[in-house]
Design brief:
- It is found in: Cytoplasm.
- Keywords: ATP-binding, Cell shape, Cell wall biogenesis/degradation, Cytoplasm, Ligase, Nucleotide-binding, Peptidoglycan synthesis.
- GO terms for molecular function: D-alanine-D-alanine ligase activity.
- It is an enzyme of class 6 (ligase).
- Its cofactor is Mn(2+); Mg(2+).
- The chain has eleven helices and 13 strands.
- With 321 residues, the protein is α+β, with helices and mostly antiparallel strands.
- It has three domains: 94 residues, Rossmann fold (3-Layer(aba) Sandwich), CATH 3.40.50.20; 134 residues, D-amino Acid Aminotransferase, Chain A, domain 1, CATH 3.30.470; 61 residues, ATP-grasp fold, A domain (Dna Ligase, domain 1), CATH 3.30.1490.20.
- The strands form three sheets. Strands 8, 9, 10, 11, 12 and 13 form a six-stranded antiparallel β-sheet that branches. It has a four-stranded antiparallel β-sheet with strand order 4-7-5-6, covered by helices on one side. It has a three-stranded parallel β-sheet with strand order 2-1-3, with helices on one face.
- Helix 1 crosses helix 11 and helix 6 crosses helix 7.
- The radius of gyration is 19 Å and the shape is globular.
């Protein structure tokens, strides 16, 4: 990020702001952590910011109470999947992050992969499965190890890495409890990295890549949010040229889905070929003390507080009057 891109924002001009947090998804606990962090940061910068939990209040109260823009700190369903974005569009209240269509598509890992493949972007092979038997068939086709996961869930919830046919049934059942749509995905062995993007259209920029080193390579829900055992390397320490290639891939993936504001893409680098493979893109990334977008932004010279203000200032509508 260039120094001139660290824009100055008149926080008073941002008006009355609702930080949407909590919600009804399986990621409610993490969303509350993200939202409270964002709320404190915005208040420290003089923003008239207030907490708003859609699980406890009707969305219509946003308009009744005169909120002028929303910072979406919701994760998962009913927050990151286009539903809240659609409600805010109807009320005419600008919000952070991608719009209705981009949010909805990005939440659906199958649709995301189909678009990326159509655009020539690399993503691991996959199969949609509707039963334990189909999961076994996918294992035979994709090989071992294989990842089994819900199509429309985040934060590795309901995800299993299987190494034998005998594990497929339990893995399918676990994923299906989270979402009736389940997918099996080829496992890419190698470095796990993530890369945020800030901005819209031609002004969108990829931030520094973060390399993730989790205990025993297991970057699960617990190791993501509730332990200090996972190492996050920024600078990422990748071979020369690889970081730039990953940033270019992630930026193209972001623009292909018509994302705006911000998002974060997860990538695996094949240990043998060093080829990067797109896993998924998160359109309302975490903003907790363990979260990766603030970490990457800090490496680019942007503090947590300034990041929150910048994102809030980018709040927009798909269909502005």
């Amino acid at each position: 990020m260039k120094p001139e891109e660290h824009m100055q924002v008149d926080t008073k001009a941002l008006g009355k702001v609702a930080v949407l947090m909590g919600g009804r998804s399986a990621e409610r606990e993490v969303s509350l952590m993200s939202g409270n962090g964002v709320l404190a940061a915005l208040k420290s910068k003089g923003v008239d910011a207030h907490a708003f939990d859609p699980a406890e209040r009707e969305m219509g109260e946003l308009r009744k109470e005169g909120f002028q823009r929303c910072f979406i700190a919701l994760h998962g369903r009913f927050g990151e999947d286009g539903t809240v974005q659609g409600a805010l569009e109807l009320m005419g209240i600008p919000y952070t992050g991608p719009g209705v269509m981009a949010s909805s598509v990005a939440m659906d890992k199958l649709m995301t992969k189909r678009i990326w493949v159509a655009e020539g972007l690399s993503t691991p092979a996959w199969r949609q499965v509707r039963s334990a038997d189909e999961a076994v068939a996918a294992f035979k086709a994709l090989g071992s190890p294989m990842i089994v996961k819900p199509v429309r869930e985040g934060s590795t919830i309901g995800l299993t890495k299987v190494t034998s046919e005998a594990q497929c049934a339990a893995a399918y059942e676990l994923a299906a409890r989270q979402d009736p749509m389940v997918m099996c995905e080829q496992f890419i062995a190698g470095d796990e990295v993530t890369c945020p993007v800030l901005g819209t259209g031609a002004s969108a920029r990829a931030l520094p890549v973060i390399r993730i080193v989790a205990p025993e390579g297991n970057y699960d829900y617990q190791n993501k949010y509730f332990t200090d055992d996972t190492k996050y390397l920024v600078p990422c320490g990748l071979p020369e040229g690889e970081e730039a290639a990953i940033q270019a891939l992630v930026l193209k993936a972001y623009l292909t889905l018509d994302c705006r504001g911000w998002s974060r893409a997860d990538v695996m680098i094949d240990a043998k070929t060093r080829k990067p493979w797109l896993l998924e893109i998160n359109t309302s990334p975490g903003m907790t003390g363990h979260s990766l977008v603030p970490m990457s932004a800090k490496a680019a010279g942007l503090s947590y507080e300034d990041l929150c203000v910048r994102l809030l200032a980018s709040a927009a509508l798909d269909n502005a009057a």
